[in-house]
Predict the structure.
Amino acid sequence: MAKTLLVGLGNPILTDDAIGWRVVEQTRDHFELGDVDIQLVCVGGLSLAELMIGYKRVIIVDSIITKRHLPGTVYHLALCSLPETLNSSSAHDTNLTTALEALRRFNAPLPDNDAIEFVAVEALDVWTFGESCTPDVAASIPTAAERVWSLLQS
Amino acid sequence: MTRITIDPITRLEGHGKIEIFLNEQGNVENCYLQIPELRGFEVFCLGRPAEEMPRLTDRICGVCPEAHHMAAAKALDALYHVDPPSPAKKLRELLYSAFYVTDHTTHFYALGGPDFVVGPDAPTAERNILGVIAKVGLEIGGQVIACRKRNHEVIKMIGGRAIHPVTALPGGMAHPITEEQRQQILEIARQNVEFAQFTIQLFHDVVLANSGYVDLIVSQGYTQKTYYMGLVDENNHVNFYDGKVRVVDPEGKEFIKYAPGEYIQHIAEHVEPWTYLKFPYLKKVGWKGFVDGKDSGIYMATPLSRLNAADGMATPLAQAEYEKMYETLGGKPVHHTLAIHWARVIELQYAAERMLQLAEDPEITSTNIRAIPTAIPTEGVGIVEAPRGTLTHHYKTDEKGLLTEVNLVVGTTNNNAPMYISVKKAAQALIHDGQVNDGILNRIEMAFRSYDPCMSCATHSLPGQMPLELIVRDVTGALVHHLSQYVQPELLESVK
């Protein structure tokens, strides 16, 4: 198992919700990632936390809606700097931070919280089924991929 | 009039909103439940080859892709006029049973259970899986995680992937399982049966042994009398994967029983201008507004509904607990929505036992798992019981098998009207003289949460899980109270 896990998170057929997948695919296709495992998934909460077992470091790429910045804006977020309203929660169990804490209590080998980072892209439409992101969000894919690559180098 | 907004609903993803309107006396005048709906799935599907649907529809939802995968595969069986061989049906049901075990386990211990195990008035931050672990012990928490892990392995073994399975095809399954795999599944199923027994005992010890909780469950604020829907087998026993849809009236008498292809004759949908989500109802009774009772066509499709709609469970341990529940709660049907949690652990027991039965079946390793479709596709309906309610997929194609019509009636949609009534009843029972606090709001949410509704759960955008936002306005519309744990956007550092 590689030490680093790169996760593209979201629904690949839900317009901008697919941005996590698209950025990870671009990163994979344009850079030599080496010893990095890749997962493209649509899960949250416990299921997402369970994916991280055995890794030292995790980078998650996802969409975000703050309505404070323009669609396509790229953010770099640390897990520990996010409030409990972190996205990657599941409607049917719990949020990611709680899920990670629960797994740690059972001695699951998980990365430290400061080794879990997010690259997020401001989305416009995550409610309409479609295979393409909206134009501004799609245009951000190279920037976000470079950001992921830069994080992987650090 | 005072306005209270619970927006969005704690621990439920998406932009669901409960708005409660108080009158001059501070009592509940009315309330609205709004659940978002993802848009354009039917249009998205049109023109695509129908055989893509089992892999496409399981992308609708990140929580119950197995349910969509199975409903789609069954719809394709009907569409292509092909009957899968018996081993293929059993293999599908085996996968589906493993899915049910993990889904119901997760709900009980992580989402619904905290309200009882930790307590409905406990601080929000403690009403989660960590609070449950603190109460019941680390060892039990470890069993929950282990249960999820081993059943995900079964889903991957049969479904090809642990998430979003790919193996159900029109006419059967893509690959069989080996004897070695069967032995592994057998052992996992035995562990599941034991774990389900333990969970039921825990429910008795923590919930039923507490008279306060039992009083809460049977209280009027959490009671409504509707029709109940669920799939049943030839003996009218609960079945998650196959059978006919049976609906009983509020007195428990069979009202209708129909094959999947006949659903359109029995179910219609009401539209309200204030929400995108439709309100299904029974055609023969008709839409009479948001009221319960025999004269209203509103029906419920939940774990409790399935038990109410059936004559019993097909496995012994689940049947024993089924009888215990009805004996304790005063006979059939049970109208108390919080009893959905009890029904859910009974279904967990059934799923585990059914999994064991299927793993012990010599036919389960047969390689006769596919009947190749040869007929020209036309129209097909597939129905399974998703954990959150009856799930219907309906497809029509042209002679080349390209989709021309798609209609899905998902579990949460079935329960849209009952959830609305539940929230209103709970609010009316709990809010008096304008007095509102966190405990009361959580108890209102409990009425909603017992359904485990799926609010556009395919969407994972940050911040996906919205916290509780409470807004109270006086009669002039002025803000008098605001509770919020919303994301602080200033924490987000833009890099572009």
About this structure: Chain A touches chain B through 64 residues (CB under 8 Å). The longest strand of chain A covers residues 57-64. The two ends of chain A are 20 Å apart (CA to CA).
